[in-house]
Every structure is written in C-alpha cells, then in structure tokens.
Write a structure and sequence with these properties.
This protein has about 425 residues and is mainly α. Helix content is about 80%, strand content about 0%.
Length: about 425
C-alpha cells in the first residue's frame, strides 16, 4: 500500500477510535456531575448523592488496570489490531446499555448496581484502548515523527470532550430541566452506538503495526509477569508521569462543572460553553507538546506541563470562588494548555520505557494506574474537601499531582536497545 495512504489510515484509526472511547467516558462524567446522583442513588443529602455519583465515575478507573492486563496480554501476544477491535466493542456496548437503565425510583437498589456494573465495563474496555491506539501510531511512525504520530490518539481526548459537552449543551438548550432529567440525558449514551459502528469499520481495515510485525523474539507467555518482574521501576515511574494530566483534566471538567453549577449556582449552559472554549487550549497544548517532543526529549516537555499544572493549583479555588466567568476561563485555559503539553508526548515517552514484547501491557497499565490516582481519586477527594468546608484546599490536589509527575519523569529510564 502507498505509504502516505497507509499513514493516513493508521492515524485515522488511532484518532477515531480514541475519540469514540473518550466520548463514551466523558458523557458518563458529565452525566455523573449533572443527574446521576439524584437518579441512581438513595435520597440523602445532595452532597452524599454527588459523592456516590463520583464514586461510580471513579469505579471505571479501578477497572482500567484489569482491562490493561487482559487486553495487554493479547495485544502483546497476538497483535494490536484484534485487541483494539475487542476493546472498542466492550466500551461501546457498556455505554449504550447505560442509556437504557431505569433509575432508583423504579427498580431500587438494582439501579446503582447495574450502573456500576456497566461503568466497570466501560473502564475495562478503555483499559485496553489507549495503549493499543498509542502503539498503533508510534510503532508505525516515520523516523523523527514519533511524537506527532503518537499525538493522534491523544487528540481523541479533546475531540471526545468536545462532542460530549457539545451534545449536553445542545440538550440543555433545547429541553426543559424536567425532560433532560427524565430522558434527555440518555441520548448521548444511545447515540454512541452509531459512533462505535463507524470506529469498528475503520479499525477492521488497518494492518498490524510495523514494529510488532518485525519483532524477532517469540511472544512472552505472560506479559504482566515480565512487566512486574523486570520493569517494575519503569512501571511506577510511568504511572507517576501521567498523574498530573488526569488530575487537572477531571478537576477542570466533571468536578468544576458539578461544584460551580450546584454549590456556586452558576448557569449550567454558560459553564458548559465556557468549557468548550477552554477545550481549544487543550488541543493547542497537545499539538505544541508533540511538536516540541520530536525536537527535544519528551520527558522535558511533560515535566514543563507538570510544573505549570502545579502552579495552577494556587489559582484553582480562588478563580472558581470568584464566580467570575473571565477569571474561571483564564484559570481553566491555562490548566488545559498545561495538560496538553504533558499529554501530547505521552504515547512516545511511555512507549520508550518498555521493550516491544511487553509494551502493550506495560504502557496500558502505567496509563491506567496513573489514572486511578489522578482521575478517580482527585474528584472524590475534591468533593470530600468541599463537603467538609475546605474547598480552598482543592487546588493542593493539582500541586501534589504536578509534583508526583515531576518525580516520575525524573526517575524514568528508556528501555535499552537490546531488550
């Protein structure tokens, strides 16, 4: 096949698949912030219901390492393509079924149980998605373009967020609050079925990655055993290296949306529109970070993003408490630009820490472990702090996340060429 055509197909498959996966993931986060607390959990205080909703959101991050191990096992043994198709089907199927669930008022305690089960399915599928998409791009990249190719799956995050928040914004503008709570929130989940079908069609047309196909050694029998036995320091460093980007994203999206619209009583549609505008800075950060990473060491760009995220921690609470849309926009714009800088080079940086034979398992696991700390625990901890009257401490979570990532990128060492 013509190299240009092949490269275009690889980049499209990486981008479209992760856009769909992140769309599915983010619509749950938005729905958890807006409606899941009252719909799926017993009536308690509104703060307790919101905490339960965020805990269901965080459940997917617990499932992701298990998905990383399961899908990584087959991705390292039989190849990237088949594994990517399977992960997309699981993620998409779980998302569509969430859109059909009755609430607590209808079926009682079964409702949150089913919601959490399907949320687990979402997380399990995404655990195998990102690593495969990243390798599909990086392992097929021309020399000197590895970071820019690796940014293709990273762009799925802002694109998925754009479609997620954009759709919720349109629903909010066109439906009454009662209609939105009764049935409108289900539309994004059900619409995912069409997107998944498109993603599957594209992924079934790709070939195996060049580096995996050229690997001379036989497949590792149990990839996770080799990762934990021979590459544990790199796994821990890689996991720390992604904490900051997860923390700043979820504190700047799902938690900021929930707190601002429920506690601070800011207008929901205005805040959603503001977040859509901020998303452009995320895109710009990814592009800039990937371009610089092909010219400079990727770890330096990730470190710069982490340092900026830590700095944003000092302004997070004051900006939201100001109730000033320009101040909030400025704080979130800087935070998303910083996230993009750290997120854009991640595919290349993490891939370089591990040999090809266990790379799918290793980078998927590192990515998801970092996601548990930064993406699952951060909103829960922030909600707990806010509920206890310490909202001004929430920015400290960003400071901590930035410092942990700086430690991770400083400690990580590239895999040797002999491995």
């Amino acid at each position: 096949m013509n190299p240009i055509r092949q490269n275009a197909r690889v980049l499209t498959a990486s981008l479209v698949g992760t856009s769909i996966e992140f769309f599915d993931f983010y619509i749950f986060g938005t729905a958890a912030a807006l409606v899941f607390g009252s719909l799926f959990f017993p009536a308690q205080s509104s703060s307790a219901q919101q905490m339960a909703a965020f805990m269901s959101f965080g459940l997917a991050f617990i499932a992701r390492p298990l998905g990383a191990i399961a899908f990584g096992h087959f991705g390292d043994r039989i190849g990237r393509k088949a594994t990517l198709v399977s992960s997309l089907m699981l993620m998409g199927g779980s998302t569509v079924l969430i859109g059909t669930l009755p609430g607590y008022a209808t079926i009682g305690i079964i409702a949150p149980f089913l919601l959490c089960t399907l949320r687990f399915g979402q997380g399990f599928g995404l655990g195998g998605e990102w690593g495969g998409a990243a390798l599909l791009a990086v392992e097929n990249a021309p020399k000197g373009w590895e970071a820019r190719f690796g940014a293709a799956p990273q762009m799925g995050a802002p694109i998925g967020f754009l479609f997620s928040n954009g759709l919720f914004l349109l629903l909010g503008l066109s439906l009454s609050q009662d209609d939105f709570i009764a049935w409108g929130w289900r539309i994004p989940f059900l619409a995912s079925a069409v997107l998944v079908a498109v993603g599957l069609w594209i992924r079934l047309r790709i070939t195996e990655t060049r580096q995996f196909a050229e690997a001379a050694a036989p497949p590792v029998a149990v990839p996770i055993a080799e990762v934990l036995g021979r590459h544990l320091p790199q796994l821990l460093a890689g996991s720390a290296g992604v904490i900051a980007v997860f923390a700043v994203f979820y504190l700047g999206t799902a938690f900021a949306l929930s707190y601002s619209t429920t506690t601070l009583h800011l207008d929901r549609q205005t805040f959603l529109a503001l977040q859509l505008g901020v998303n452009l800075f995320f895109v710009g950060g990814i592009v800039l970070g990937a371009f610089l990473a092909d010219k400079i060491a990727p770890k330096l760009i990730i470190a710069a993003g982490a340092a900026l995220i830590a700095l944003v921690g000092f302004f997070y609470a004051p900006a939201l408490l100001s109730r000033s849309y320009p101040e909030i926009f400025a704080m979130l714009a800087v935070s998303q630009l910083a996230m993009g800088l750290g997120y854009g080079p991640l595919s290349l940086w993490l891939s370089g820490l591990f040999p090809v034979r266990v790379r799918y398992t290793a980078i998927s696991l590192a990515f998801t472990i970092g996601g548990i700390v930064g993406g699952a625990l951060s909103p829960i901890a922030a909600q707990a702090l806010a509920g206890a009257g310490h909202f001004d401490w929430v920015g400290g979570l960003l400071l901590a996340g930035g410092l942990l990532t700086l430690i991770g990128v400083s400690a990580a060492r590239p895999a040797s060429a002999a491995e």
